[in-house]
Amino acid sequence: MTVKNEKNEKQSDSEKRNNIEEIEYSDLYPGRKNQSGENQSRTWFDVITFNEKRKNYEKINCEINVYNCVKKSPLVKLMLAALKSSGCEVDLGRHISCEVCDNTVTGGYDPDTNQIIICQNTARSRNRVQSTLSHEMIHMFDYCRNKLDLNNIDHLACTEIRAANQCHCSFLGAWYRGTASPFHIKKAHQDCVMDKAVRSLIAIKNIPKEEAMDAVRRVFTKCYNDLEPIGRRLRRNSMDMEKAYYEGPYYGYSE
């Protein structure tokens, strides 16, 4: 999921249909609001409930999980290699930030700072951090290599489709969300990707479901079939991540 832009520009009616509305950073990522130098003051509630210590612990745990994924996850290592080969090498301290987020999200990509946000209060396990990192790295890859314009709703829909397609939608995951059946598995996967992309657009742009669905449908076929840089749709409990990693150098993605 990408983070909303806070630029304040006048737009025509036609532009409003395709551009992100004039709003501040989303409340989904409250930490983004305090990067202007304003520090949150400590409250008695933080002191009494050890809330500050808990947040510090969550941040350290998150950073450890990020580090372990960078060193050990074939999927994350492949994405890092693809970004590096595309001229957008990732600096761990500069481009990945563990922060407190709304409980409904696990991460995001902020194009204004070119940072991936890992939500320390919701992405608590290494597997969840790996899933979130790889998803947001697809957005970073698209922004770097494909000159993604996140103010264009079709571009935004496309990168959400690609991220869901390659990093999120498995049959078991779709079954859990209620978007799959034991029949027509290929269609079930497409439905899962479309559902995830539509949900992301609604959250990012605060638009009606019908408008989000229209944008996703316009670009779905092209973006669903674009599997760069992973090269395959990952199946759960398979060797797909390892295969994609070892195939990376054949496509110019070397660490």
TrEMBL record:
Top EC class of this enzyme: hydrolase
Q: For this UniProt entry, what's an example GO CC term?
A: mitochondrion
Question: Per UniProt, what is one Pfam family of this protein?
Answer: Peptidase_M76
Q: Which Gene Ontology molecular function entries are recorded, alphabetically?
A: metal ion binding; metalloendopeptidase activity
Supply the alphabetized keyword list. Answer: Hydrolase, Metal-binding, Metalloprotease, Protease
Q: Where is the composition biased (Basic and acidic residues)?
A: 1-20
Q: What is its EC number?
A: 3.4.24.-
Q: Which InterPro entries match?
A: Peptidase_M76_ATP23
Region listing for Disordered, in residue ranges: 1-38
GO BP, one annotated term: mitochondrial protein processing
Where does the UniProt annotation place the signal sequence?
A: none
Entry similarity comment? Belongs to the peptidase M76 family.
What is the designated name of this protein?
A: Mitochondrial inner membrane protease ATP23
Organismal lineage: Eukaryota, Metazoa, Ecdysozoa, Arthropoda, Hexapoda
